[in-house]
Amino acid sequence: MDVDICSGCLLYPVIFILGWKISEQAISCAKQSFIDAGLKGNDMGRADRPLVPESLGLISAVVFLVLAVVQIPFLDSNVDLTLFLGALLTITSAAFLGFVDDVLNLRWRHKLWAPAVSAVPLLTVYFIVNGETSVLLPKFLRGFDIKILDFTLLSKGGILQLGPLYYCYLLALIIFCLNAINILSGVNGLEAGQTVIIGLGFICYNLIELYNGKLSEEHLACHYRSLSLIVPFVGCVFGLVRKNWYPAEVFVGDTFCYWAGCTLATTSIIGRFSKTGILFFIPQIFNFVYGLPQLLHIIPCPRHRLPRFNSETGLREMSTTRVKWSKLNVIGKFWVTAGKLTGTIWTKDLDDDELELNNLTNLNLTLKIVGPVSEEKLTTILIFQQILGCVLALFIRYYVAGLVY
């Protein structure tokens, strides 16, 4: 394993730099072709609203897939190529579906379930290689022995055998990750920027586990397998960030959100840290829960909830929506009232029955707290939140999880 560690120290930095430079250069060469093909849109965050090529996440995805395949002869000898190639097939499917979304502009109800199609290759391979389908329960739930027929669901050691339900969990994880990146978006550099931070968090976690010397050979191989995906991925996305940062030369498109979310989910699955992996999505989970009333149409939800651009000041301001108090159900009224009391929802009474409130996204909440700011500053604040979220994830994993598990 020492030889494998040394080879990894040489391979991973090279793969990262290649992904960064090739992705950045390929995007520069391809962006005009995307404009010519009609994949373009106006940047609504600038006064002159220039045309910007869209869906350039596809280029970074292609570079990533090429690098991931090219590095196979140099991978750690313990890496399970069957599972690794299954993961690549799933990621390829996700990138393809994302590009289809960019071209056909799928409805949200299709966006929620389309990722399930891309998950099929990984779940199939995971089943073939007899992947782990049990989970360790918290200490307070241990000491039980539950059986249905001859199948042990829960042993006294605290191991819960989920069986087929585990595949439902993995499917839900992939669907969430794909949509989480897509929902927390809308300003230059945010989608790619948050993805780089989460990817770096994954790399840090893998390296900590590799060098603590307490894992079996099997679990060490899982972390090498995870690194073999996440390192070229972060390198390629870093090249994309440099082109997508304000003022953006290119837009990443839904192609990127599908590809990035699927890669992050897949990396945690084949690295066997799916529970830990979800901790790195704390800002995305908060954004999802905070906006759930609008996503479920308990509170009116406009098609676009992006922060508003003030052309006079050049700053981003929180966007709002209008609601009739009498038309809100009990849950909607409770959510708005609780938001007003906690300071997480801005409201303005328009008349006896109508009020105005901010759209329920983390971007608008951040603008409510800090006030109108430039788009670049808003993105920087949100990226800093992501860094704090990843630090918190590592803290929970190494200092809190031990108290529970």
TrEMBL record:
Any one GO cellular component localisation term in the record: endoplasmic reticulum membrane
GO molecular function: glycosyltransferase activity; metal ion binding; UDP-N-acetylglucosamine-dolichyl-phosphate N-acetylglucosaminephosphotransferase activity
Catalyzed reactions per annotation: a di-trans,poly-cis-dolichyl phosphate + UDP-N-acetyl-alpha-D-glucosamine = an N-acetyl-alpha-D-glucosaminyl-diphospho-di-trans,poly-cis-dolichol + UMP
Main localization category: endoplasmic reticulum
Cofactor(s) this protein cannot do without: Mg(2+)
GO BP, one annotated term: dolichol-linked oligosaccharide biosynthetic process
Biological function: UDP-N-acetylglucosamine--dolichyl-phosphate N-acetylglucosaminephosphotransferase that operates in the biosynthetic pathway of dolichol-linked oligosaccharides, the glycan precursors employed in protein asparagine (N)-glycosylation. The assembly of dolichol-linked oligosaccharides begins on the cytosolic side of the endoplasmic reticulum membrane and finishes in its lumen. The sequential addition of sugars to dolichol pyrophosphate produces dolichol-linked oligosaccharides containing fourteen sugars, including two GlcNAcs, nine mannoses and three glucoses.
Family assignment from sequence similarity: Belongs to the glycosyltransferase 4 family.
Keyword Chloroplast recorded: no
Entry's transmembrane regions: 56-75, 81-100, 112-129, 164-185, 192-211, 223-241, 277-299, 378-400
Membrane-protein topology: Multi-pass membrane protein
Protein name (Swiss-Prot/TrEMBL): UDP-N-acetylglucosamine--dolichyl-phosphate N-acetylglucosaminephosphotransferase
Subcellular location: Endoplasmic reticulum membrane
Alphabetized PANTHER family for the sequence: UDP-N-ACETYLGLUCOSAMINE--DOLICHYL-PHOSPHATE N-ACETYLGLUCOSAMINEPHOSPHOTRANSFERASE
DNA-binding as UniProt keyword: no
Listed pathway(s): Protein modification; protein glycosylation
Keywords, in A-Z order: Endoplasmic reticulum, Glycosyltransferase, Magnesium, Membrane, Metal-binding, Transferase, Transmembrane, Transmembrane helix
Species of the source: Oikopleura dioica
Annotated EC: 2.7.8.15
